[in-house]
Amino acid sequence: MEKATFSFYKRGDITLPETLTIIPLKGDVLFPHLVLPLSLTGEELVKIVNESLSKNELIGFITLRYHGNAPKPNDLYDMGTAAKVVRVLESGPDSVTTLIEGIVRIKVIEYIQTEPYYRARVEEIREFTERSETVDVLMQSIKTLFKLSTMLGKTLPKDIISKIDDIYNPSVLADLVAIYLELPVDEKQKLLEITDPQKRLRIVFHYLNKEIHLKGVRGKIDEEVAKEMSKIEREYFLREQLKAIQKELGQEDPRREEINKFEEKIKEAKMPGEVEEVAIKELERLRDINPASAEYPVSRTYLDYLITIPWNKKTTDNLDILQAAKILNEDHYGLEKVKERILEFLAVHKLKEKLKGPILCFCGPPGTGKTSLGKSIARALGRKFVRISLGGIRDEAEIRGHRRTYVGALPGRIMQEICRAGYSNPVFMLDEIDKVGADFRGDPASALLEVLDPEQNSNFVDHYLDVSFDLSRVLFITTANILDTVHTALRDRMEVIYLPGYSEEEKLKIAQQFLIPKQVKENGLENHPIVFKDQAICKIIREYTREAGLRNLEREIASICRKVAKEIAAGEQITKEVTPESAEKFLGPRKFFYQVTDEEDRIGVVTGLAWTETGGDIIFVEASRMKGEKELTLTGQLGDVMQESAIAALSYVRSNAKRIGIDENFYDNSEIHIHIPAGAIPKDGPSAGITICMALISLLTGRYARREVALSGEITLTGTVLPVGGVKEKVLAAIRAGVTVIMLPLKNKEDFEEIDKEIRDKIRCVYIQKVDDAIGTVLIPK
């Protein structure tokens, strides 16, 4: 709006005619009592203004809804203001600058002329307001806020503030304040069209209050910015003064000193050529950054990491194979395949200097020593040992790092741990690789492909560092309970070594050589050594634990050591020797029983062998028959594979019923129910087919099934028994449960014979090719 003033003009000497010449206003609204300078172009408009001034006639001013070169009547609002020309300031042939004064609100009834200018029939909009306490309060509040706005920096004509107290007309006050509000044109037009002065006062009060609030907030922000700027300026001058003082004292600028230290460290780091170029370039960038800038610590931290990384610093491998074998045997009992693989690596490394580190994967049940085996390998090689757990990691940046554009960016866990190790060739253990997750933040398992690929990891690029690092010298070891959940491409890059679990003899020797000395030390019994009898350890293994690993066995030994420590602390009689009786006294009633030998033979109940991620286990398959109509019911939380095995077993029995000695029509009026106990535990796998088939044959022939005979194998509809996996785990589980005979597919013969002889001697194995081969051994003749 151009500079406007306010008038207390009284229209007693001017009469509103029925028709008025209409002049469109662009981007502004004319209110009554407003004196506004206005520039108009066009011969007709110059003529209209001059005639209006000479004849003292009114002109209608109406705001345009839409701006255009040739506006039509529909482009104008319906309401506007009748105004008189006060003075012509400057006039020419086709332009005029004039001063107009709003008189009264008008409404257009009908346009009677559009060329060469608009003319319309109009009517006056009269306003009537009864004075009330509400109106008085509103007027007083508006006057107060209007004055407050000038204190907050609002620009107003000088005479407005002095005249506002003399206004007692609500309509005039509302129009006056509306003129100076910072509102869009359409909002001002709405105020012009409100004919009730009290309603207009309320809206004006709302806008004025909002405007003052925003000015207050803006003023507060400006004040804070000014303070911050003055603080920065003050810090700058103080730094300049400090530099001058240090120069007089002969001291070096701390920042320059830091830059010089970085230069020295870059030279000492012995980085590869391309990495050194990146570091020098970043250092030059650091010189130009203001220390108060947010970029300074980011650049400084990046340089710190580049310098800290052990680019060419590595440990010398202990290539004495006999010494390495001695260390491995000291730390671990058994695990001959793993030890043999490490000694092979050392032998090859001795013959070939530049050898890429293998990617080993230790797969087996919990508690079988996978993680501790990694520490022993590092000790045997004379390398540093680092470990990270991948369990639950879902963010790809945990492996590859965050890009430096992110706030709080850091290198990935791989490069962080190598920095902590201080050497470029540590033994690096990635625990729980089978428990890596994936979500919207990326797939960490896929990110590990580059890390664990011997052909690619010589140029591993971390997103944060953005330079390549040679990981081929690192000996990576991963651990997993099962391989089914590991990414297929990732599994292909690893050399898998299975740790199936320990037999009772192995657990006994490990307890005597490792677990008991460790718990005696950890529980403060070095000065009061206790002796565990072999029979006591065997009792703990058989009656208080049932596992493939050693964790529960170690917990029970630790429990006995704590109770002995309590005896010492209480001054009671100290137990110096742990016997089977004292073990039971310390640990309470036995927790596990032999599931097979403690039960009797039954019809339709057969013992099976299963493999889980925690080791082998035995299952019981129960079959029953009742009246019904050709229906098969399966219960016990069976997975899809086991459900299909049950259907295949039933189909085999039905198709071979006559040959086996079963009524061919047994299924016509029968319902068969197959159940595997422990119904709350999900079960699945391809090794229960023969067990289910034997349970059905036992049920339908009425012959008892030997409980101490356990089976494992999948069957086809032709009766062929297919091979299965996890043989050693299943054999150990059978021995723990008291099974005396196991039946395995003939193609698993080599797997059984690979098991240690001392384990094989505890159980008899019968090999089968067809279902018929198992019937005579499993079922007792009538």
What would you note in describing this structure?
It is found in: Cytoplasm. Its EC number is 3.4.21.53. Residues 600-781 form the Lon proteolytic domain. With 782 residues, this protein is of the alpha/beta class. It folds into five domains: 5-124, LON domain-like (Archaeosine Trna-guanine Transglycosylase, Chain: A, domain 4, Roll), CATH 2.30.130.40; 254-308; 338-498, Rossmann fold, CATH 3.40.50; 504-587, Helicase, Ruva Protein, domain 3 (Orthogonal Bundle), CATH 1.10.8; 602-778, Ribosomal Protein S5, domain 2, CATH 3.30.230. 43% of the residues lie in helices and 19% in strands. It is built from 27 helices and 27 strands. The strands form seven sheets. It has a seven-stranded mixed beta sheet with strand order 20-21-19-18-23-26-27. The chain has a five-stranded mixed barrel with strand order 2-4-5-6-7. Strand 11 (460-461) and strand 12 form a beta hairpin. Helix 4 packs parallel to helix 6. The longest helix has 53 residues, at 197-249. It is elongated.
